[in-house]
Amino acid sequence: MPARNNDLRSALRRAAAAMKADGPDFALAGSYALWVHGAPEPVHDVDFVVAESDVEVAAKTLAEAGFLIERPPEDWLFKASVGDNFVIDVLHRLNGVPVDATTIERAAARDVLAISMRVLSATEVVTEKLCSLNEHHCDFASLLPSVRAVREQVDWVSVGTGTAHNDFAVAFLVLIDRLGITD
């Protein structure tokens, strides 16, 4: 396993353990959530979601666990780093929609690297990833392996409904339908 994956796994475990011990409620999201559902392991970062009302508690918890906290200009997340690498993104809005306790509670508990934590469903993560596609970020090639790997766990009707407003998402759904992934 590449060193970057070891670092990401270590950061994921450390952050999850801290959040479980000292709150707030959270769920694993993004590419690592898809990895839990069977997609290829990501190499970029780890995403957690917390309720918008819990952002400061989450930042304090991770800072006390030794993470450096950075607040980028984007007002929908903060970053927690270990060393020089930003490895944990803590999101409190998904595509402009505030995360609330219901979003976290809806996520099923799963064992991830020997730690039980909530993980967003494959359907929810695929929907969020497709909704984030736009003219500045439209990389279908990076989505295909993950979507193909989790295809049987995804409610494609729900994804279609949840992404119908985004032309880039609609185009991706047409592509994967034509490739037989949604069958």
What does this structure look like?
- Helix 2 runs antiparallel to helix 5 and helix 5 runs parallel beside helix 7 (156-163).
- The protein is 46% helix and 20% strand.
- The relative contact order is 0.15.
- The chain has two domains: 1-120, Beta Polymerase, domain 2, CATH 3.30.460.40; 121-183.
- It is built from eight helices and nine strands.
- The protein has helices at residues 3-22, 30-36, 55-64, 101-106, 122-131, 140-150, 156-163, 167-178; strands spanning 27-29, 46-49, 68-70, 77-82, 85-91, 93-94, 97-98, 108-112, 115-119.
- A hairpin with a 2-residue loop joins strand 4 (77-82) and strand 5.
List the helices and strands and how they pair.
Elements: H1 3-22, E1 27-29, H2 30-36, E2 46-49, H3 55-64, E3 68-70, E4 77-82, E5 85-91, E6 93-94, E7 97-98, H4 101-106, E8 108-112, E9 115-119, H5 122-131, H6 140-150, H7 156-163, H8 167-178
Parallel strand pairs: 1-9, 2-5
Antiparallel strand pairs: 1-2, 3-4, 4-5, 6-7, 8-9
Helix pairs in contact: 2-5, 5-7
CATH class of the largest domain: Alpha Beta
Q: What is the end-to-end distance?
A: 33 Å
Q: Which residues form runs of ≥5 with pLDDT under 50?
A: none
The largest sheet is:
7 strands, mixed
Q: Would you count the extended β strands for me?
A: 9
Structural class: alpha+beta
How many helix segments?
8
